[in-house]
Amino acid sequence: MFNIGDFIIYGNNGVCKITNVGPMKMPGVPKDRLYYTMVPCYIRDSEIFTPIDNERVVMRKVMSKDEAEDFIQSISEIKELEIIEEKKRELEYKQAVLTCEPEILVSLIKTIHTRMEDRIAVGKKVTSSDSKYFHIAEESLCGELAISLEMDKDEVRDYIKEKVEF
Fold it and tell me: Cα separation of 60 and 6, whole Å?
């Protein structure tokens, strides 16, 4: 169970801060069920309510500062995704994003980055699917690392480039 003030990853909403834990004060909602009230860190004017026992959406605590530093040091060792069937590429991208796991997000970013470079090198355009999932993965990863490292999300990309040898 998470506590008020905790930062968590909540599915595609990314990093959220828990602002309340308790029953919902709404008609028709059972008073014996506990809910998290959360505010997404990177989605303005939004509030999320979810049962504390929700198992359909990924909910996990954000990395600590030490875990984030260790993770960044391990980025160069993370391998690209192996996409065997080209027709299932977008599905593989989507499944990778839905895990909300930093290692898988880095694998996805590396995979798409290599693919974009290869396409550009032979005079082809970057696909909209590649652009979309690259952006989603990068935003999700940088959002978590920004909270963990106590810096702006925009600073995280440069910080990673400084620390990681590719």
Answer: 10
Give the Cα separation of 12 and 144 in Å (integer). Answer: 12
* CA atoms within 13 A of residue 24's CA, in its CB half-sphere: 15
Residue 34, CA distances (Å) to 30, 62, 155 in order:
9, 21, 36
| Both tokens assigned to 88 | 């299932």
Please answer whether residues 63 and 102 qualify as being in contact, where contact means their C-beta atoms are separated by less than 8 angstroms: yes
d(CA 49, CA 36) in angstroms, rounded, equals: 6
Largest CA distance in the chain: 61
DSSP 76: G
Burial 102-126 (b: 16+ CB within 10 A, else e): bebbbbbbbbbeebbeeeeeeeeee
Instruction: Answer whether 18's CB lies under 8 Å from 36's CB.
Output: yes
Residue pLDDT, tens place only, 116-146: 999 999 999 999 999 999 999 999 999 999 9
pTM of the model: 0.91
Counted residue by residue, the chain has a size of 166
Distance CA 114, CA 97 (A): 17
